[in-house]
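Retro notes (design track)

What went well: tokenization of the new backbones is finally stable.
What didn't: we kept losing track of which sequence belonged to which structure.
Fix going forward: every design gets posted as structure first, then sequence, in one message. First example under the new rule, 266 residues:
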């Protein structure tokens, strides 16, 4: 798809003529002199035409005949006001794209913080026999979404020990649709596998999706993720109920579930 500047340039009569002359070697064949004679101009006059956004109608007619061009070779031009509006629209879109890119970079940095924290936690737990799992309760969901990139916040979450894992973040389960697979409200699902590339997501696996949507979808969800034609959708664990569409804009991060801790453990 052409950019706005390319669209404007593609309607510049002089640029169109110059590009055609160069592409077809007309200059090398003496065609410029012939064209100048047809138009009643000098060779320099042709070069002046190259600079013109709008070539006079009588010149356009003679150029089309002389070079055997299609009647619509010179398109309708865009006024300065229209050019300004297009440029403003293009600038606005570039700003939006830039903000989205900045947001995605910030999320990538935050995921790196999480990975580094888990690595440090793994090492400290091995050396000092410390609690190696951090717990996120239902009441702490929004606090976690707002602060998960802060190591101080992570270190002050409730803690427990799991002997069969090196380190993990565990989330208290809420919502419906998990009972069918043996997960009850109040249980915890834990993970140390933070997804970086969403094209590696598999329908058969269970995921923890941390979502931050400015409308009304800021929450943490548990279930399966369906990928169809490049789009992701969150399904409840029964794989029947469509929960929410997922995009790079509203996903903060995704954990692949490694296991479950029953509520009675705490």
């Amino acid at each position: 798809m052409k950019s706005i500047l390319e669209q404007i340039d593609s309607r510049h009569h002089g640029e169109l003529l110059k590009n055609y002359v160069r592409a077809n070697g007309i200059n090398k064949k003496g065609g410029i002199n012939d064209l100048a004679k047809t138009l009643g101009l000098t060779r320099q006059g042709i070069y002046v035409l190259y600079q013109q956004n709008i070539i006079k109608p009588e010149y356009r007619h003679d150029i089309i005949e002389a070079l055997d061009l299609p009647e619509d070779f010179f398109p309708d031009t865009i006024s300065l006001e229209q050019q300004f509006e297009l440029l403003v629209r293009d600038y606005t879109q570039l700003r939006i794209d830039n903000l989205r890119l900045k947001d995605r970079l910030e999320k990538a940095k935050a995921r790196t913080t999480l990975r580094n924290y888990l690595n440090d936690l793994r090492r400290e737990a091995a050396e000092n026999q410390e609690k190696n799992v951090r717990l996120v309760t239902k009441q702490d969901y929004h606090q976690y979404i707002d602060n998960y990139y802060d190591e101080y916040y992570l270190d002050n979450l409730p803690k427990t020990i799991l002997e069969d894992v090196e380190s993990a973040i565990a989330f208290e389960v809420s919502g419906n649709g998990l009972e069918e697979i043996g997960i009850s409200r109040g249980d915890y699902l834990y993970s140390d596998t933070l997804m970086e590339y969403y094209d590696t997501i598999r329908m058969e696996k269970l995921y923890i999706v941390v979502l931050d949507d400015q409308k009304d979808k800021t929450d943490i969800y548990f279930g399966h993720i369906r990928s169809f034609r490049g789009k992701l959708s969150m399904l409840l664990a029964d794989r029947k109920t469509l929960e929410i569409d997922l995009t790079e804009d509203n996903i903060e991060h995704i954990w692949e579930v490694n296991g479950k801790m029953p509520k009675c453990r705490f």
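Added context from the reviewer: The chain has two domains: 4-78, 103-265.
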